[in-house]
Amino acid sequence: MVIAIGFEGSANKLGIGIIKDGEVLSNCRTTYITPPGAGFLPKETALHHRENVLAVLKDAINESKIDVKDIDVVCYTKGPGMGAPLATVAVVARTVAQLWNKPLLGVNHCIGHIEMGRIITGAKNPTILYVSGGNTQVIAFCRKRYRIVGETIDIAVGNCLDRFARILKLSNAPSPGYNIEQLAKKGKKCVTLPYCVKGMDVSFSGILTYMEERAATLLKEGYTEEDLCFSLQEHVFAMLVETSERALAHCNSTEMMIVGGVGCNERLQEMMEIMCQERGATLFATDERYCIDNGLMIAHAGAEMYKSGIRMKWEDCTILQRYRTDAVEATWRKD
Amino acid sequence: MENFELIKQGAEARIFKGLYLGKPTLIKQRFEKKYRYPDLDEHLTKERIKAESRAIVRCKNVGIETPALYLIDLKKRCLYMEYFEHSITAKEFIMEASNEFIEKLSYDIGATLAKMHENNIIHGDLTTSNILIVNQFGEKCFFKDYSKLKLVLIDFGLAHIDNSAEDKGVDLYVLERAIISIHDNPEKIFGLILKAYRKNTNGHNNVIAKLDEVRLRGRKRLVVG
Ligand SMILES: Nc1ncnc2c1ncn2[C@@H]1O[C@H](COP(=O)(O)OP(=O)(O)O)[C@@H](O)[C@H]1O
Ligand SMILES: [Mg+2]
């Protein structure tokens, strides 16, 4: 039996979770929310994490009803992400590990999403679409590593959505993507936007530029904000589903899993579900508790690493702003 | 399409086989994708059918093996083309073939892609699923005599014409990751492909330099969230 605590703060979410052999004991989170029209910057985000981390930690421990002495391993996000917020949270993890006299493990954030998705949904060896504010990757497991089969060649899909929300000055609470999703449900007309797919890669910068230059005009021409949100979603999600399908076919896979913050978008899930049905595959997706960055996923991935025998020296418990999914050997997977 | 039998579903289309004007024919139908907004789906499908037929013709003209094109039916979203009865994908071939055959194949892939790029044809979706190995003697045998095999490129829906090192480099990068994500020994396979590619291109080493640059882009990108 392994009890792990995980600390996550690579972007604007600060999360701490505790897991006991796949059983969720607690999963607490707070989000740094910026005013409409503004994105989050490293310094302010780090400050938010510093101000809130002890309160979230207290909640996570209380909710879990465990005694900290029963924790086996302290896990934190090593990267990828923003430097200052990563470092802030890593320092706290390092401190409690020393206070409690527990081993410390640095976890790859993307691996956290994937392993959390697998345990929650029960998917065995899925082709994975990982979509968030900073990442857009299509991933397949092969020769002990999560291989990047396709990815964005410029900006991440979540970044595209966030920046579009800023053009319309939509609220960032609870998240810009959520607000776009709600407005899109009322959209009726679909504007034709640039659609850019290269094999299993996608590009979103063309669509964003188009919106930056044309949104105001389109609104004057009789399109509503709802229509623009709808059009954007229909285009970017179609690109993601198309490349996912290509990867699914190439990998002879019958399982598709969506992870990452954008993955809780119901329209994306619906489109992916239709694609899967059309080719006899099964879709696995999770809701916002597990999709959006959280501490639990770091705890779970860290526990898997720990159980497979991985230990890290203190001097290796650093942070990495750039840390690729395929840099980690998945020693815990037996296939 | 009566008398045609569904044989598989590819990455995008449904594949039927049958006889057309007395010849073994494959119909590639880009069926309606219900997940896509209908107008967008219609638009993309037509573009791809056109891109695929254009690229097939262009390849034929410069001596690159592709299936012969028989009929374009935009309304039914279908392409009719030559069906290679005795063929397997390079993906399937690599899974079973001996090291010696895999090396030969890798070399031939590199040489074929060199020729394609020399003619400024960008495939757009290079994977080992989109390369066919055909037994030219109509035998259902692929692993005994390599000299009986030929390599045929398929699936040109994302193809276009471009002479830039950028597009060629990206084309190779797409293939590299497709190999890494399913095959054993990807360094060796792709290494041989590049070796043959270099040998068969004139002064196009800037494509390889571009490939290196494209590879680094992913590694250098800062990701947040
Ligand atoms: N001309 C052909 N002869 C024999 N088999 C073919 C031919 N064209 C395609 N196939 C088979 O059908 C599969 C899908 O065809 P492809 O053109 O790649 O469509 P998709 O875009 O759906 O992937 C190929 O991987 C191959 O196995
Ligand atoms: Mg194909």
UniProtKB/TrEMBL annotation, chain A:
Instruction: Return the PROSITE patterns for the record.
Output: GLYCOPROTEASE
| InterPro entries (alphabetical) | ATPase_NBD (IPR043129), Gcp-like_dom (IPR000905), KAE1/TsaD (IPR017861), Kae1_archaea_euk (IPR034680), Peptidase_M22_CS (IPR017860)
Q: Which GO terms describe its biological process?
A: tRNA threonylcarbamoyladenosine modification
The subcellular localization recorded is:
Cytoplasm; Nucleus
Recorded catalytic reaction(s): these are:
L-threonylcarbamoyladenylate + adenosine(37) in tRNA = N(6)-L-threonylcarbamoyladenosine(37) in tRNA + AMP + H(+)
Q: Under which EC number(s) is this enzyme classified?
A: 2.3.1.234
- Main localization is cytoplasm
Q: Which cofactor does it need?
A: a divalent metal cation
> Pfam family example for this protein?
TsaD
**Molecular function via GO:** metal ion binding; tRNA N(6)-L-threonylcarbamoyladenine synthase activity
> Where would I find the Gcp-like domain in this sequence?
25-299
Q: Which GO terms describe its cellular component?
A: cytoplasm; EKC/KEOPS complex; nucleus
Cofactor binding notes: Binds 1 divalent metal cation per subunit.
Q: Mind listing the UniProt keywords for this protein, alphabetically?
A: Acyltransferase, Cytoplasm, Metal-binding, Nucleus, Transferase, tRNA processing
| Amino acids binding substrate | 130-134, 162, 177, 181, 265
The residues that the entry says bind a divalent metal cation are 109, 113, 130, 293
Task: Check the record and name the NCBIfam families matching this protein.
Answer: arch_KAE1, gcp_kae1
The entry assigns this protein to a family as follows: Belongs to the KAE1 / TsaD family.
Q: What is this protein called?
A: N(6)-L-threonylcarbamoyladenine synthase
Q: What is the organism of origin for this protein?
A: Aquatica leii
For this protein's source organism, the top of the classification is: Eukaryota, Metazoa, Ecdysozoa, Arthropoda, Hexapoda
From TrEMBL, chain B:
Organism for this UniProt entry: Aquatica leii
Q: Where is the Protein kinase domain?
A: 1-225
Query: Which family does the record assign?
Result: Belongs to the protein kinase superfamily. BUD32 family.
Catalytic reaction list: L-threonyl-[protein] + ATP = O-phospho-L-threonyl-[protein] + ADP + H(+); L-seryl-[protein] + ATP = O-phospho-L-seryl-[protein] + ADP + H(+)
| GO CC field | cytosol; EKC/KEOPS complex; nucleus
Task: Write down the top EC class of this protein.
Answer: transferase
The biological process GO terms on file are: tRNA processing; tRNA threonylcarbamoyladenosine metabolic process
Functional summary from the UniProt entry:
Component of the EKC/KEOPS complex that is required for the formation of a threonylcarbamoyl group on adenosine at position 37 (t(6)A37) in tRNAs that read codons beginning with adenine. The complex is probably involved in the transfer of the threonylcarbamoyl moiety of threonylcarbamoyl-AMP (TC-AMP) to the N6 group of A37. TP53RK has ATPase activity in the context of the EKC/KEOPS complex and likely plays a supporting role to the catalytic subunit OSGEP. Atypical protein kinase that phosphorylates 'Ser-15' of p53/TP53 protein and may therefore participate in its activation.
Query: What assembly does the database describe for this protein?
Result: Component of the EKC/KEOPS complex composed of at least GON7, TP53RK, TPRKB, OSGEP and LAGE3; the whole complex dimerizes.
Q: Name one GO molecular function term.
A: protein serine/threonine kinase activity
Q: What is its EC number?
A: 2.7.11.1
Name of the protein described by the UniProt record: non-specific serine/threonine protein kinase
Q: What compartments host this protein?
A: Nucleus
Arranged from A to Z, the UniProt key words for this protein are: ATP-binding, Hydrolase, Kinase, Nucleotide-binding, Nucleus, Phosphoprotein, Serine/threonine-protein kinase, Transferase, tRNA processing
